[in-house]
Design goal:
binds tryptophanyl-5'AMP; globular; mainly alpha
Length: 332
């Protein structure tokens, strides 16, 4: 039997080049080798307030992007998290078996608390309960591998802990303990304006990220105005040259080459020439992606999602029945 992968992305903003390089590109590469499940994490998106019209539109956008990036519905089961009720059912089990201290230690939670305090916004309790839902998303399908970017490693570690805890409570191996899979390069694509910070779709400065569906001329301009340094040597050195290192990572990832080879390629280039080359690579990538995205229609997407929901639900509903049974939930 093929080993399995599971992963998802939140439709909470415009997808970025970071999401692609750190996560989605891996889904595409791994689908040939693994039994693959990829979803739209819409229930995670509502842990922060959303506009309903935009959320639904972004859900479709994300599915179209998954397909445009190369996910093949014959190899990957593509579905929407909210359409498979077992995700929420199992999330409650993990909510009950996780500890406040564990959840409060999560960096993403702590960052949101800080940000909201500064903006004097309330902190929704969904932000705290986010990792148990993520554990449920994963463990329902017994994957061996979960491809994610660097910022999700801590959630994955907690997922493993929760799986082991429930296996312990029930004295049975109910859940497969999954491994985190991070790309060799590009697990953390940085902001183009503050290259010591992660590129993020929720950044207040739109110049800091490349949104996959933005007009291509805008993205080219963002690469050309990316913050670098004054050394004038194209060299990979994250500590001293975070901006140049980030652009080298983006270039190498999109060209499918090693960072060391990219560095060699640009060893005699000026920053201007280097940025022009990176911008060209991004332009070619986005043009192809957007052409494929625009060629997809609603009927095709809906048919793929219907099929995905049926396949995912068959596995997930069987799993939740098994878990309930082992925990003594429900009738004899
Ligand atoms: P999300 O939607 O924030 O991000 C989706 C994926 O993109 C990766 N990523 C990055 N990788 C490299 N550089 C960046 N700058 C960058 N920004 C984001 C993330 O690491 C992630 O892999 N909680 C998840 C969604 C989720 C999920 C799951 C993932 C829900 N359930 C189960 C895996 C398994 C999230 O918010 O990702």
């Amino acid at each position: 039997m093929k080993k399995r992968i599971v992963s998802g992305i939140k439709p909470s903003g415009s997808l970025t080049l970071g999401n692609y390089i750190g996560a989605a590109k891996q889904f595409v590469d791994l689908q040939n080798e693994f039994d693959s499940f990829v979803f739209v994490a819409d229930l995670h998106a509502i842990t922060v307030p959303q506009n309903s019209t935009e959320l639904r539109a972004r859900t479709y956008d994300l599915v179209k992007l998954y397909l445009a990036m190369g996910l093949d519905p014959k190899k990957t089961t593509l579905f929407i998290q909210s359409e498979v009720p077992a995700h929420l059912q199992l999330a409650w089990v993990f909510t009950c078996s996780s500890y406040m201290g564990e959840l409060e230690r999560m960096t993403q939670y702590k960052d949101t608390v800080l940000k909201n305090k500064v903006k004097q916004l309330p902190i929704g309790s969904g932000i705290l309960q986010y990792p148990p839902l993520m554990a449920a998303d994963i463990l329902l399908y017994d994957p061996q591998i979960v491809p994610v970017g660097d910022d999700q490693s801590q959630h994955l570690e907690l997922t493993r802990t929760l799986a082991e805890r429930l296996n312990g409570i029930t004295n049975q191996d109910i859940f497969t303990i999954p491994e985190t899979f991070k790309p060799k390069q590009g697990a953390r694509i940085m902001s183009l304006q503050e290259p010591t910070k992660k590129m993020s779709k929720s950044d207040d400065n739109p110049k800091s990220y490349i949104a996959l569906l933005d007009p291509i001329a805008v993205s080219v301009k963002k690469i050309k105005s990316a913050v670098t340094d004054s050394e004038m040597v194209v060299r990979y050195d994250v500590e001293h040259k975070p901006g140049i290192s980030n652009l080298l990572t983006i270039y190498a990832s999109l060209e499918n080459i090693e960072i060391s080879d990219a560095q060699k390629h640009f060893e005699n280039s000026t920053y201007g020439e280097f940025k022009t080359a990176v911008a060209k690579t991004v332009e070619i990538f986005l043009t192809e992606l957007q052409n494929k995205y625009h060629a997809l229609n609603m009927d095709t997407v809906n048919a793929i999602l219907d099929d995905g929901r049926i396949k995912a639900d068959a596995i997930a509903s069987k799993k939740i029945s098994h878990v309930y049974h082992k925990l003594g939930i429900g009738r004899f």
